[in-house]
Amino acid sequence: MSRLRNKTALITGGARGIGAAIARAFRDEGAAVLLIDIDGDEGQATADQIGARFARLDVSSEADWDAVAEQYPALDVLVNNAGITGFEGPFDGPPPAHDPENASLADWRAVHAVNSDGTFLGCRYAIRAMRAKGAGSIINISSRSGLVGIPMAAAYAASKAAIRNHTKSVALYCAGQGLAIRCNSIHPAAIMTPMWEPMLGDGPDRTEREAAMVADTPLRRFGEAEEVAALAVLLASDEVTYMTGAELTIDGGILAGSAATPGG
Ligand SMILES: NC(=O)c1ccc[n+]([C@@H]2O[C@H](COP(=O)([O-])OP(=O)(O)OC[C@H]3O[C@@H](n4cnc5c(N)ncnc54)[C@H](O)[C@@H]3O)[C@@H](O)[C@H]2O)c1
Question: Matching Gene3D superfamilies, A to Z (predicted)?
Answer without folding.
Answer: NAD(P)-binding Rossmann-like Domain
